[in-house]
Amino acid sequence: MSDGPAVKLALHPAPGLAVCIVAAHAAAAACLWLLLPGYLGGALAALVLALGVVVAWDRALLRATASVRGLVLGAGDAAFLLLRDGRRIAATVRKGRLVSRLCVTLAVRAPGRRSLMVTPGMLDPESFRILRLWALWGRVPGQAAVASRQLPY
Question: Is 2 part of any domain?
């Protein structure tokens, strides 16, 4: 790995994540409705469900104008967020990172953002691997250095 060139990753919509987000908000809305019967409970449940739809639209389906449609990964904690409306925002990734085979969650220090979650369906497999490596080690993969004795004849 090297601290060399930046890597640009294009994010794609994740319908499965959108379904999970809406389902979680629907479950929370149902709990509210059961705890607070009547108009108040129904209104709160509708608001929570509407919030789930908005969050899924923005974070999973990437349809809002401020949705992150791409990442440019640099050395260390530096990154750029590429938004759907064409803006490019400089960001710093803070310590609170979660890296697993199911998702990468980055705590981002940028205007209007606190976190960014990327699932495998949002990137091709090689790009998701690169993002995981960058999130763990703060470097993007480069040409592997090979000693002359390791090369086949």
Answer: no
